[in-house]
Amino acid sequence: MRTTKVLIVDDEVEFASTLSERLSLRKYDAKAVYCAEDAFAIARSNPPDVVLLDLKIPGMEGTEIGKIIKQFNPAIQIILLTGESENKIISENLGKDISDYIVKPVEIGELTKKIDNAMKEKEKLDHSKGQP
Amino acid sequence: MRIWKKLMVGFGVYVTLAAIIGIFAYVELRTITKRFTVVEVADDITNIILEVRRFEKNFLLYKDDDTFQEIKKYLAVLTDDTDKIRKEIIKEVGTDNYEMMKNAIAEYDFQINILSKNFKLQKEFISKIGVLTRSIEKNLSGDVLNSFLIVRKYEKNLMIYRDKDIYATLINTLNSPKFATAEVNRYRSLINGLFKLYREEQSSIEKIRSKARNIQTFTEDLSKRERANITTILSRSAILLLFAVLTIIILGTAVNIKIANSIATPLKQLEGITKKIATADFSKRIDVRGKDELASLGTAFNQMQDQLQNTMRFLELANEKLRESRAQLVETEKLATLGRFSAGVAHEINNPLAIINEKAGLMKDYIDMSEDFPNKEKFNVMLNAIFDSVRRCSSITHRILGFARKTDITPEAINLNSLVNEVLKFLEKEILYKSIRLELELSEALPVIKSDKIQLQQVFLNIIKNAADAVEEGGLIRISTGIKNNTTFQVSVEDNGYGIPKEMLKNIFEPFFTTKEKGKGTGLGLSISYGIIKKLGGNILVKSEQNKGTTFTVEIPV
Ligand SMILES: Nc1ncnc2c1ncn2[C@@H]1O[C@H](COP(=O)(O)OP(=O)(O)O)[C@@H](O)[C@H]1O
Ligand SMILES: [Mg+2]
Questions:
Q1: How far apart are CA A57 and CA B310, in angstroms?
Q2: Are residues B374 and B422 in the same domain?
Q3: CATH number for the domain including A104?
Q4: Cβ of B522 less than 6 Å from ligand 1
Q5: Which residues pair with B491 in a beta bridge?
Q6: Atom of ligand 1 at shortest distance to CA of B497?
Q7: ipTM of the predicted structure?
Q8: Contact at CB, B397 and A18, closer than 8 angstroms
Q9: Residue B475 in 3-state DSSP?
Q10: pLDDT tens string B446-473
Q11: Which CATH number covers residue B551?
Q12: Could you tell me if A106 lies within 8 Å of chain B, comparing CB atoms?
């Protein structure tokens, strides 16, 4: 199993960067961006496997960003980061563009589990498309 | 009776009474007028009698024919007059008396006639005596003549005094043989005849006077009687009129007062009730009596009042409902505002909390990675304390957000019994761990309701969890579902835990009110549950006794 490329998109710089570092320590290829444009740029140049997407980024809904990222590669797995457990947006988009969600503050073990699950899904999709 | 009829009766009573009095007065006046004619005639008769009597005196004095004729004339008038008022007289004195009077008049007439003849005869006799005596005196002389002259003196005295003794002396003297002549014999028989006439005159006069007096007293009596009659009639009329006027006043007043009352009483009642209605007092109804316009007005008024009362009741109810729903709206709005505010706060806290969590996590990562980190254990303890605090905070923020975001309700079909069972599954571990006895009394007849499932779940989760927290090991929780009435269902959660002190009951629904130790309770469970149930239009009731147990009852509208 190759290294999972994780992209964290959150306008809370301290949160995103620290989480990115913690994931890196756990052998993930993690990267943090703080705005939608940067996210799209990376998605194009170096598409991630899993995107951790804040539900709300100034100027754009998380789900919107997810939709756009998915256009670069529909296999990319998107996990929403949210402040609250029961959310209409999540329940409406779960299983469509959004594969999973996790509530902030995040339990790191729980998060890595979710990322791994998402990665498995991603690989399944890649295989079915006949890609390496 | 209709009002105009009543008024007509009132008016009619007056008119009728006035007419009766009028007719009565008219009849009385007619009677009096008639009576007066009788009196007049009676007076006339009296006057005529007086006239006749005056002429009678003259006639007796002068013995002339003119006076006789006058008497006759007046007697004719008298007969006429008595005939004129024959009926009245008969009525007054009876037929016998009337006939008697008539007879008296006839007798009077008769005697006057006799007297008149008598007077004529007297004159004849006297002139014959004059002629005869002159012839006798011529044929006599000497003593005989002287004696005869004495006889003539007697004769004169006899004519003046009409005395019986003088007559006897005269006849005696004539009977002397000196006067035995044919002429003296004739003279004697003439004297005899004259004296006889005198005697007859006397008797006639007596008869005439007696009859005249009879007639006079009769007519005077008649006149007196008639006057007395008129006086009686007048005083009777006066009394009757007075009585009639009094009757009109009393009867008319009584009838009109009764009519006025029958009109005024319902009006007064109406006025009183109208005043009551003006002060929103609908307790009185008009006592409808009779069939007149006022009665139908009363009925209509009562109907109006019923209608008005119904409308008022309806409006009051509507107003009450409006007030209730407005209060509920205000409460909902308050809750929503509070929700939005606390959600904002929670959100703002949650992000730095996430940062703290990551930073501490990273610290822990590095400490765990280095083999020989100084005071590693100490740091781990501190870091765990940080994680605990973060968890505590986030449990609060999550609850707030979970509640606050749910301002709108998404109704779906729910069976309360299965909802309770689902909730119990979440708490399985805890119930087992504390060996809590669970008693379920779930009503079979519970129909499916439409409500927000997730929110109701949260409510029952909170309440049952509180019960589980409150009981000792091996404690009892009894959950029952049922129908309160056809608009409300209820779910009761009863426990035999430590209960809630009375003075605390009013606080338990306040946000952040908790009696549980730090880290265990947030004090948000009941406040959020209360908010949800109020939003759904229901109610939460608590009954609790310290050290005995607590019952929470949730009422949910259909
Ligand atoms: N079943 C119960 N028995 C006794 N006390 C109760 C019960 N339910 C609630 N309480 C009291 O009400 C308080 C508030 O409850 P809640 O709002 O759920 O907050 P928390 O459970 O977090 O304390 C509790 O701390 C407790 O003192
Ligand atoms: Mg509680």
A1: 60
A2: no
A3: 3.40.50.2300
A4: yes
A5: B481, B554
A6: 3
A7: 0.91
A8: no
A9: coil
A10: 888 888 887 888 899 899 999 999 999 9
A11: 3.30.565.10
A12: yes
* CA of B552, closest atom in ligand 1: 1
Nearest ligand, CA B531: 1
Q: What does chain A come to in residues?
A: 132
Residue B356, domain extent = 314-407
CATH number at residue B179: 1.20.58
Find the mean pLDDT for residues A107-130: 89
**pLDDT at residue number B427:** 87
State in Å: Cα B351 to ligand 1 middle. 29
Cα-flanking dihedrals φ and ψ of residue B492, to 5°? -110, 135
Inter-chain residue contact B361 with A21, CB threshold 8 Å: no
Tokens of B396: 């609060």
| Tens digits of residue pLDDT in A71-81 | 888 899 999 99
If one counts the domains in chain B, the total is 3
Q: Is residue B86 part of a domain?
A: yes
Q: How far is it, in rounded angstroms, from Cα A41 to Cα B532? A: 44
Number of domains present in the structure of chain A: 1
Q: Please give the mean pLDDT across all residues of chain B.
A: 87
- Token pair listed for B153: 């003196």
Its pTM stands at 0.47
Q: What is the chain A residue with the closest CA to B348?
A: A83
Residue nearest atom 21 of ligand 1, based on CA coordinates: B521
CB contact under 8 A, A85 and B398: yes
Region for A7 from its dihedrals, namely left if φ exceeds 0, alpha if ψ lies in -120 to 50, beta otherwise: beta
Ligand 1 centroid to residue B417 C-alpha, Å: 23
| Atom number in ligand 1 closest to CA B528 | 17
- B508 CB within 6 A, ligand 1: yes
Same domain, B428 and B516: yes
User: Which residue, chain included where needed, has tokens 């339990």?
Assistant: A107
